[in-house]
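Prompt: For my understanding, could you write out one protein's sequence and backbone structure tokens?
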Amino acid sequence: MSRAPILNPKLVPVSGIDAHLPPVPVEALQPQALRQRFAAAPEWQVELPGDGGRFAGRASAAAAVLVPIVLRAEGPQVLLTRRTAHLRDHAGQISFPGGRVEPEDVDVEAAALRETEEEIGLARRHIEVIGRLPTYTTVTAFEVTPVVGLLEPGFSLKLDPFEVAEAFEVPLQYLMTPAHHQRHIFTFEGGQREFLSMPWPQGSEEYFIWGATAAMLRNFYRFLSA
């Protein structure tokens, strides 16, 4: 492989917290504001286009994920999943539902909706797709397009036990507040790797959102705050 893998990101020291950056205003996170932002996107700069470098010997492949925003009465929530521990790629990590774009998918939106239904049983009729974010390149050589969708409450989930250990929600406002964005530097022989994390405490549990998922959320922050 071309660089050292990060086996336990929680143990990598925090090098900084981005509390100096302003949060996205609450009014900009409401459903109509989100629709309008994608309908008339401003000029903006992607902060994190990819992990940089990748495991050797892997050809690139197109993939798509859904960024599901649940329109709860208490405020919009982002629906995330925790992957099962035995998977080859990103085992045990927090992720968006999604996966590889297959030949039968007419576009990345179709791939994201199909994969979401397969992984967590969320039927596409519940999802209002409002736009997509720029492609993110992972260290495992996937070119991932995040597709953003709105969900009205009332849906039910049926998790694929092979791929998904659990599904949970995090307030969009929490994720769009950079005071919750931590920077890490992983040092190994021959170089360094930097990554973001957005730990979400939930009672005695901590969901450690990091890597590609955190990076795509950070790009979402840049898009909404442009």
About this structure: The first helix runs from residue 31 to 39. The first strand starts at residue 14 and ends at 17. The radius of gyration is 17 Å.
